[in-house]
Amino acid sequence: MQLITKILSSVYMFPYRKSLTRISNHANWTCKGMQSNKKFAGIIPIVDYSLCGLLTSDKLLKQEDLYNAGKELVDAFSTRGFVYLTNSGINPKHLQKAEKITNKFFNLEKSKIEQYILDGGMEFGYVGVGREDVDWDNLCDVKEAFSFDGNSVFNHPEKLPEDICPGILEFPKKFMTDCRKLSERIMDSLSIGMELKEESDLRKCHKRIHNQGNISYLRLNYYGSADKNHLQPGQIRLGEHTDYGSFTLLFQDNVGGLQLEQEGHYVDAVPMQDAIFIIIGESLNLLSGGLLKSKKHRVMVPEDEVRQKLARHSYTYFVDPDEDVVINHQLLYKDESKNKADFKKLPPPYTFKQLCLERCAKIYAPI
Asked: What does the angle CA 237 – CA 238 – CA 239 come to, to the nearest 5 degrees?
């Protein structure tokens, strides 16, 4: 099993283009000589998930391994709010296919792409440059994206743009299926690591993933060449924001630009080959009673002129609670002292659907 994991990890992220080779040498690194056994990539904790990842079958999965990984994840998410997950078992072919589809789709004539423009929500369709504004107090985002929600992919495949981009029909099914399986393993690890009273509660909040009533979705993000001379002063690729679902799996290339908020200032999230960047969203922050932190992040335009001319790819799988989940009533812990909520003074129920509608109204405000 270890040999298979090692072989897969050598090709795990999407194949880097030759133009990136000379930039990537300094981009992937791990701090050494630490006092503890913890590993970091810059400020980002690294969790090895080889014993709980998708290469480990359900039959061979051990409760002890879920517990150990869960404790590491909870420690990282309760202090930093994010982590690099290695040895997840996600098939590297998914990422290679994602790169091909991204390059093919976003280089089509705009008139063809705009037939599939997103309408009224974030979960399915095309978004053009400047259409979204995740930091609604500042300038619009400089990126394009295409989102695939599970209900469309698995139940209404006729909605996908197979006519203009052959291959886009089958690609998300396999990728999203693996992302869901991995996300459920992560939920199990977190439930055990958090020592919830009922370890199945977190899964129950996400039982409709890829079906009606849950909008968890995969998004292909394409940040084109970003010559600063063509941008407005202060405009960046993706504005400051927090994700508002449960957590996000981010697969990124090594062009860089992602920054994370820590103690009132931003630091670079150094790309790490063969790793998935995971960040906690607002919903899981609420469901955990504030234990798991949801941190602000953004994507900057690189200062280096060579990097500015490179297109940046990232693929995000947003894990969201079911629409009817009440997110402002925390899950219960075995340790009663952690159950902060006074059930006689609970606020009015606030569902994930309500949060989603409020955010979309701001992100997609009328132009």
From this structure: 125
